[in-house]
Write a structure and sequence with these properties.
Blueprint: H1 3-17, E1 22-28, E2 31-37, H2 42-54, E3 60-66, E4 70-74, H3 77-86, E5 109-112, E6 126-130, H4 137-147, H5 153-161, E7 174-180, H6 182-189, E8 204-212
C-alpha cells in the first residue's frame, strides 16, 4: 500500500472507531470541510455549538495563518484583550480547560485559543486548526526532555507519519478533528500573509451543524 493511502486508511480507521455525535461544516471562500466534535470533551463541544447559535462563527475570519503551524479563526487576542481593558467591569471571562491526554495536536485537529493564563482556560470566540509538520524520533525525544513529559508511543507514530504540533499538548484544549476536506485547510495555510500573519486576502468562514444526536 502506498504511503499516502496508508495514512488515509489510518485516519479513516480512527474516525470509524471514534464515531462522535456531532459533525459541523465549515464553509469558506477557499472551499469547505467537515469537522467532528469529540464527545469526551462535552463542555467544549457544547460551548462551541452555543457560539455557533449565537452567530460568533457566521462570516467570521481566519485571521492568523502560520504555515506548518495553525490557521486561527474567530476574534484575535489583541481585540479581546483591548475590549476587556476598556470594560474592566466585565472581567476577563474564560472557559475552563478540558484537556484530555488522548486528545492531542495531530494534523487536522481543532483546538481552542487562549491567552497566557495559568489555568489554561480558553476564549469563547477563538479556535484553531493544526497543520503542523512531521517530526523525527530525535526531535520528539528532545521535546520530551525539554518539557519533562513522556509522549505516548501511539502519538509519536502519528507525529512521525502525519505530523502536528506536539509541543502544544497538555497546554491547550483539543475538542475535534477534520473528517473531510483537510486539503482546504492546507490551501488556507498557504495563503499569503502580512507581517502579523493576517491573510492578505480575507479568508471568510461560517459554521453550520450537520449531525447531532
Amino acid at each position: 500500500m502506498k504511503k499516502g493511502m496508508l495514512l488515509v486508511a489510518l485516519l479513516l480507521g480512527a474516525i470509524i472507531t471514534q464515531a462522535q455525535s456531532v459533525l459541523v461544516k465549515f464553509t469558506t471562500n477557499q472551499g469547505n470541510f467537515t469537522v467532528m466534535l469529540y464527545d469526551d470533551t462535552p463542555k467544549y463541544r457544547d460551548m462551541f455549538l452555543a457560539e455557533i447559535r449565537k452567530g460568533t462563527y457566521t462570516n467570521a475570519l481566519f485571521n492568523r495563518v502560520i504555515k506548518d503551524f495553525v490557521i486561527q479563526g474567530g476574534v484575535l487576542d489583541d481585540t479581546t484583550l483591548l475590549y476587556e481593558k476598556q470594560h474592566p467591569e466585565l472581567g476577563a471571562p474564560r472557559f475552563p480547560a478540558e484537556i484530555k491526554s488522548n486528545r492531542y495536536h495531530k494534523r487536522g485537529t481543532l483546538g481552542a485559543g487562549r491567552d497566557d493564563n495559568p489555568e489554561k482556560a480558553a476564549y469563547f470566540n477563538q479556535i484553531y486548526f493544526v497543520t503542523g509538520k512531521k517530526y523525527t524520533p530525535a526531535q520528539l525525544a528532545e521535546l520530551e526532555k525539554k518539557k519533562g513529559v513522556v509522549i505516548p508511543e501511539e502519538h509519536k507514530k502519528v507525529y512521525e507519519s502525519i505530523g502536528g504540533i506536539p509541543r502544544l499538548d497538555g497546554d491547550y484544549t483539543v475538542f475535534g478533528e477534520i473528517t473531510k476536506g483537510y486539503e482546504v485547510v492546507e490551501k488556507i495555510s498557504g495563503q499569503p500573509t502580512d507581517k502579523n500573519d493576517v491573510p492578505v486576502t480575507p479568508v471568510i468562514f461560517s459554521v453550520t451543524v450537520l449531525k447531532k444526536k
